[in-house]
Amino acid sequence: MAARIERANLDRVVPILNWIAGITVIVCLMVIFFYAPTEFTMGNVQRIFYFHVGSAWVAAIAFFIALLSGIAYLRNPVRTWDTIAVGSVEIGLVFTSMTIVSGSVWGRPAWNTWWIWSPRLTSITVLWLVYVAYFMLRGAVEDEDRRGRFSAVYVIAGFVTVIITYLSIRLLRDIHPVLIGESSEAAQGLQEFSGFDSAKMGITLTVAVITFSLLYLAWLANRLRLQRMSDEASNLKVRVMSRLQH
Amino acid sequence: MDIANYLMNILAQGSEFDPNKFNNFMIIGYFVMWIIVMIYIGSLANRQRNIREEVKLLRQLLEEDEEDQ
């Protein structure tokens, strides 16, 4: 399946995906600023929450897709799986950076500090560094086949940091609230809101997650097309070199 | 007595809720997030433009070579 993603198909799909993602981002911003209720304790600054959580979730999805692509590459070493893994890690890092920065800015009025080395914030920093190191590993291996295999193994092992980051606030005492699922009494998130306002917040968060998912798809398609163009350039270089030798 | 009640009410309720109290943090947060997004989109666009130019140049070289032959 992955090998059938041709350049011509991508050329058709990429502009459509770009437009859809762009329009969805505008709709998402309108929903956040004109539909979502103003939170009682924090006021308007709570609106950062929708981008913060949305980008965090889609970053986790991107890293999970990188993990799946890594497994697929080890089973069937097709270049496209490697490209999907690289693109997903790249985009996942962009979303993780957004999550960290927005969390820090929100943390200042909420916790009265820009940063604290709590389990969640420490684990997400480790996650970010682990995935940055993925590109250092790729840069260090010249042989394409070995680079693909090493990267696939690394991206599979690296997913442990995503699991640790997810579980950190559930297993350890943390200043960061738990949004979904069971939590300790010390860490409560949106549970304090109820009724219609809570539903509106839930809808807004869903819109944000859908928006970031579409943005991820659009960027991944762009990344795949970039790889196809790069492959085309490499093929042309080989042809030019062979012509020059004759 | 009224004054005492008034002061007690202030102490009990705290200050009036102001939803715009932390607006500057919201603006900073969205601004920085958009900068990150724009840097990534810019980097994608830049890489695509460079490779497109490279492909164009290589095709031109091949065409010129074919014409010479």
Query: What is the residue-mean pLDDT of chain B, rounded to a whole number?
Result: 82
The quaternary organization reads as heterodimer
Number of helices of chain A: 6
Computed CA radius of gyration of chain A, to the nearest angstrom: 21 Å
Q: How far is the N terminus from the C terminus of chain A?
A: 38 Å
Distance between the termini of chain B: 107 Å
Number of helices of chain B: 2
Number of strands of chain B: 0
How much of the sequence of chain A is in beta strands? under 5%
Low-confidence stretches of chain A: none
Elements of chain A, N to C (H/E): HHHHHH
Q: Would you count the extended β strands of chain A for me?
A: 0
Helix fraction of chain B, binned, reads: over 70%
Structural class of chain B: mainly alpha
Characterize the biggest β-sheet of chain B: none
Cα gyration radius of chain B (Å): 32 Å
The outline of chain B comes out as: rod-shaped
Compact overview of the structure:
The complex is a heterodimer of chains A (246) and B (69). Chain A has helices spanning 7-35, 48-75, 79-111, 119-140, 144-171, 195-245.
Give an overview in words:
The complex is a heterodimer of chains A (246) and B (69). Chain A is mostly helical and 246 residues long. Chain A has helices spanning 7-35, 48-75, 79-111, 119-140, 144-171, 195-245. In chain A, α3 packs parallel to α5 (144-171) and α3 runs antiparallel to α6 (195-245). Chain A is globular, with a radius of gyration of 21 Å. The model of chain A has no long low-confidence stretch (mean pLDDT 87). Chain B is an all-alpha fold and 69 residues long. Chain B has 2 helices and no strands. The termini of chain B are far apart. The chains are: A mainly alpha (246), B mainly alpha (69). Chain A binds chain B through residues 38, 40, 42-45, 47-48, 51, 55, 91, 94, 97-98, 101-102, 105-106, 108-109, 219, 222-223, 225-226, 229-230, 232-233, 236-237, 239-240, 243, and chain B through 17-23, 25-26, 28-30, 32-33, 36-37, 40, 44, 47-48, 51-52, 54-55, 58-59, 61-62, 65.
